[in-house]
Amino acid sequence: MKHVFVVSCLLALTSSLHAADIMLGATQIERLGIRDAAPVPAAQASAAPWSARVVASADAEWVVTAPAVGVVVRVPVVEGQQVAANAVLVELRSAGLPEQGAALAQARSASALARSNLERDRALHAEGLIAERRVRESENAAAQADAAHGAAQSRLRLLGVSAADASSGRVQVRAEAAATVLERMVLPGQRVDEADALLRLADARKLMLELNLTVAQAQDVREGDVLLVEPSGEQARVTQIGWGAADTTQTVRVRAALPPAPSSLRPGLWVKARRSQPAIDAWTVPAAAVTHHDGRTWVFSRTAQGFRAVEVQALSQDAGLATVSGALDAKAAVAVSGVAALKAVWLGKGAE
């Protein structure tokens, strides 16, 4: 009842003043339980944290497949291991490889023979001993032999097998680039067919964040926004915002790329990420200082005569702090408690 009486008295004393100004003395401020704190200039506006999962970038993950039908002899790598370029990942034994090695050797010999015949026929034609048609036939035969030889070489090259390994029936599957092993998908002794998955690799320097945001949250996110990762402090930039929402969770998938550099983060790790954006005339204040009225956001700034209601734009807010943009001053504190009483006085004077 005492609090209501004080507010009533204040309404009567200040009803003739400007709508945005609240005239209060030190005693009245104390009775209303009003305390204030100075706003802190903010260069960035950070929103409430969201859960994010660290994953490999879409262009940084690949699957190593079996180049031929065979049996896995050994897998000298384990999950989580970092491997260098050209490192042996899997060794296979394949009964079909010697046949391909023999085919390459035959194609090489046929190509050499066709070239030799062509050179002989050209020499004979130059001496007038054979017709030009014979030379054209030799050229055609040499071209076909060269094409067959090139195809046999390409088959083994695509398999990642040298001619010597093909002849011995051994395949050593090697890493195309430095990477981290994400998953071993075969075991020694296992039979595999051509193109069966053996390992899943990723370039650990190319990571991204995946977030599942509500539709309302996703509407505030823009491509290019910066997400601050906690607690590492790394920054990720939003590169993709999903178009549709998931049927079961009604969330939108958002992806943000981390800089291509060594990181303490690992694929599969869950982290917290805050959206950060450049802010102009921005201030960080306790969340309790912010109040709302008529669809607009306000704080109460301290003046020599009491307080003044200042309209601000809310940039971000969580349970403890809010970042707002508006005509505040680092030298003018804002009310952080007793805000409800101040708002009652302010609205009681007819302010809108």
Write up what this structure looks like.
The protein has 352 residues and is an alpha+beta fold. It contains 7 helices and 22 strands. The protein has helices at 2-14, 26-31, 97-126, 132-159, 163-168, 215-219, 339-348, and strands at 21-23, 35-37, 40-46, 50-56, 61-65, 70-74, 82-83, 88-93, 170-174, 179-184, 191-192, 197-202, 207-214, 226-230, 235-241, 251-257, 270-286, 291-293, 296-302, 306-317, 321-326, 334-337. Strand 20 (306-317) and strand 21 (321-326) form a beta hairpin. The model is unreliable at 1-19 (pLDDT under 50).
Cα-based radius of gyration, to the nearest Å: 37 Å
- Note the total helix count: 7
In the sheet with the most strands, the strands line up as: 4-13-16-15-14-17
Strand content: 35-45%
The main pleated sheet reads as: 6 strands, antiparallel, barrel
Give the key terms:
352 residues, alpha+beta, 6-stranded antiparallel beta barrel, 4-stranded antiparallel sheet, 22 strands, 28% helix, 38% strand
In short:
The protein is α+β, with helices and mostly antiparallel strands. The protein has helices at residues 2-14, 26-31, 97-126, 132-159, 163-168, 215-219, 339-348, and strands spanning 21-23, 35-37, 40-46, 50-56, 61-65, 70-74, 82-83, 88-93, 170-174, 179-184, 191-192, 197-202, 207-214, 226-230, 235-241, 251-257, 270-286, 291-293, 296-302, 306-317, 321-326, 334-337.
